[in-house]
Amino acid sequence: MSTVNTVTGPVDSAELGNVLVHEHVFVLGEEYRENYQYDWDEEEKIAEAARDLRELKSLGMDTILDPTVLGLGRYIPRIQRIAEQIDLNIVVATGLYTYNDIPFQFHYTGPGLLFDVSEPLVTFFVKDLTEGIADTGVKAAFLKCAIEEQGLTPGVERVMRAVGQTSVQTGAPITVHTNPHTQSGLVAQQVLSEEGADLTKVVIGHSGDSTDLDYLMKLADAGSILGMDRFGLDVLLPFEDRINTVVALVEKGYADRMALAHDASCFIDWFGPEAKRQAVPKWNYRHISEDVLPALRERGVSDKDIDTMLVDVPRRYFE
């Protein structure tokens, strides 16, 4: 057992219950919102998020891991207001989300740069994990970085190495957004292992977008957790293919190296709400409870294997 920091305070890892390992509450560019979303109603959006998360709790989920970090609009005071209204753990992350460059705030400051100092990314990430995020008192509990189709650009590599170094210093686990079609999870494993990170404490995010069992088993055989974490995004991979892949991996003995989620959110400003509902009607917090778990059981996945993916694997991630 170990202590896991949530938005409302520390809990024992044994108390996390059923965990969805990759969900967002808000994906919202604050600068964009301040300048262009004139119709934003803060109270309404907070109430809607609290409603959605209470519903998720009623469907049997106890904890979500929210990897909304710099680059995705992390704003903890809003999350605190929501967390106070619900009986569900929200665990937040630190890190930086980019497919290419890092923000200009880091272009000239860091090892070997114009202002040659120790890596500020590591300094910030460690503070978020050990002291708290800004002045909120909320501590992050895991790290997040990304590697997409563009591959290991200089900016992506710098963030990933900073994440790996922070994990070594603090013991915090890692989630990596990956593109399985370019097998970028293998690149992430290589870079993180070079920094000394423990690959058993790494979720290779969005592995569930792939049906390539050889690739997925290679990731899992190196110790990492496969994030089968985009249920509902059927435009990227149909529902049946996602189910078939999980079933096949369970049959091959990999239930203890998979974790489930939707990568959904209460609000995301990347597209309009109506367009989202039309394109991906099942991309919501209810989908796993209402559709995915029944489908897995129908295909012969046992309750024990489901508990392994929802309870045991996330718990081990933190322990």
Automatic annotation (TrEMBL):
Select a single GO molecular function from the record's annotations and give it. zinc ion binding
What the entry lists under Pfam families is as follows: PTE
The cofactor named in the record is: a divalent metal cation
Q: Where does Zn(2+) 2 bind?
A: K144, H177, H206
- For the modification N6-carboxylysine, which residues carry it? K144
Q: Which residues hold Zn(2+) 1?
A: H22, H24, K144, D263
Keyword terms of this UniProt record: Hydrolase, Metal-binding
- The source's domain of life comes to Bacteria
Q: How is the cofactor bound?
A: Binds 2 divalent metal cations per subunit.
Entry's family note: Belongs to the metallo-dependent hydrolases superfamily. Phosphotriesterase family.
Q: Write down what this protein is called.
A: Phosphotriesterase homology protein
Gene encoding the protein: php
